[in-house]
Design brief:
The protein has 13 helices and 22 strands. By secondary structure, the protein is an alpha+beta fold.
């Protein structure tokens, strides 16, 4: 298996079209559909704004692909209807009518246009040779030089934080900090303090003051990971801070100016949350000046061989590529990878660690998790659970000792290579008495 197995192209045929309102309050209005997502809804920030009261704030999204226009209902109350059937998603390639609320929209396919794609197969630490990823890389590269806020959608493990880091690294703010705020781990009662910092004694248990991550990131980028988990009562405070570009720590009477760029990410369908009222629409549009979606691995299987080679290169094991059996690629390309790129990286890292530098790097053997046994039982077979626990402990110790040694204890690098969260890395280091440094 060589890198030529993955077909690389720097252009694609984009099959877009035009959407025209044939009946309803906005009759006669239309919008062109290209490779940039087009959102239809009642909110004034949508690309096609419909004054139809039965249309949701953010109703439906359409985008040109190489196979036709991809339609996605955004969790609307009354649904999107095509040919008398309610759809959550569809691929439009023929002339047809669709209904949203009480408005009829006519879709007319356009003549396919040849779109030039980015020639590079990487953006930052991200890899992708398929057209879908190259379109993504092109959008990320173009937005990196701006001050636009970006909202990144994607399933767990697709690489949303890696994409955010790549935007920061390619931006004029790259020499300043990149600070991550994990909204999913914020305690609801302390959400305001976690975002904006607090003074000493501001609340029970506040024995020391805490600097806001927005202050720590001065001149750089704040990455709001899992924004959809932010408590509803904290959302207007974040909106005000972003709009006014200043924050007030809990317990303080003074505002602090902030100079940061904001990138956010979520695995949730935030548009559905906006429509059901669990996420504020004004905050959504503040952070979603530009939206991108990192596709799941099952939608770009052709990238898997190249991804394996890319990961081995990042792990400092270029020569290991020749030791990946051809049968391994046949199996891992068919696998669904529910954990996406993170799961694949785990499998590659474990396979490399178990190959002992000379044996086959059998990634397929690690599918379904990295906790497969590193050693087989020998001698007298005793209690199963005890033997299993000892085997897993032995593998984990060997794996993290080797990882810590190769990364010189750098926790961020260890997290990047292993595909694990930094908090998990710290827990394993503590468990085995290993040293690490942030």
């Amino acid at each position: 298996m060589t890198s030529s197995t993955v077909a690389s192209t720097d252009r694609m045929q984009a099959r877009g079209g035009r959407l025209t309102v044939r009946s309803g309050p906005n009759e006669g209005e239309s919008v062109e559909i290209g490779i940039e997502p087009v959102v239809v809804g009642r909110n004034a920030s949508c690309h096609l704004v419909l004054r139809d009261p039965k249309v949701s704030s953010i109703h439906v999204e359409l985008m040109a692909t190489d196979r036709g226009v991809k339609l996605r209902d955004l969790g609307s109350r009354n649904g999107t209807w095509v040919g008398g059937a309610r759809v959550t998603g569809a691929l439009l390639s023929e002339h047809l009518s669709l209904w949203v609320g009480e408005s009829e929209l006519e879709f007319e396919p356009a003549v396919p246009k040849r779109v030039q794609l980015q020639a590079e197969e990487t953006f930052g630490s991200m890899y992708g040779a398929c057209p879908q990823m190259k379109v993504l890389f092109d959008r990320l590269a173009r937005v990196a030089s701006t001050e636009l806020t970006v909202l990144i959608f994607g399933e767990t493990g697709t690489g949303k934080e890696v994409a955010a880091q790549a935007i920061h690294d390619a931006s004029p703010r790259s020499s300043s900090p990149f600070i991550v705020i994990d909204c999913g781990s914020i305690v609801q009662t302390l959400a305001e303090a976690a975002l904006f910092g607090h003074e000493r004694g501001a609340f029970t248990g506040a024995e020391r003051g805490r600097v806001s991550p927005f202050v720590e990131a001065e001149g750089g980028t704040v990455f709001l990971d899992e924004l959809g988990e932010l408590p509803l009562d904290t959302q207007p405070k974040l909106l005000r801070a972003l709009a006014e570009r200043r924050i007030k720590p809990v317990g303080s009477s003074h505002y602090l100016p902030i100079d940061v760029r904001v990138i956010a990410a979520t695995r949730r369908d935030l548009t559905r949350s906006v429509n059901d009222g669990s996420f504020r629409s004004d905050l959504y549009f503040r952070v979603a000046q530009l939206t991108v979606t990192v596709p799941p691995l099952r939608e770009r299987r052709e990238d898997i061989p190249g991804l394996v080679r890319h990961m081995l290169h990042e792990m400092g094991a270029d020569d290991a590529w020749r030791r990946v059996p051809h049968s391994t690629f046949e199996r891992i390309i068919r696998h669904d990878w529910p954990g996406n790129v993170r799961e694949l990286r785990n499998a590659v890292a474990v396979a490399l660690a178990l190959s002992e530098g000379t044996g086959p790097v059998d990634v397929a053997a690690q599918m379904g998790g990295a906790s497969r046994t590193a050693h087989r039982p020998s001698g007298t077979v005793g209690n199963f659970r005890k033997a299993r626990r000892q085997t897993i402990d032995a593998f984990e110790r060997e794996y993290f000792e080797q990882l810590a040694r190769q990364c010189e204890g750098n926790i961020s690098e260890m997290a990047r290579r292993s595909g694990l969260e930094r908090s998990h890395i710290r827990r394993y280091l503590s468990k085995f008495g290993l040293r690490g440094a942030d």
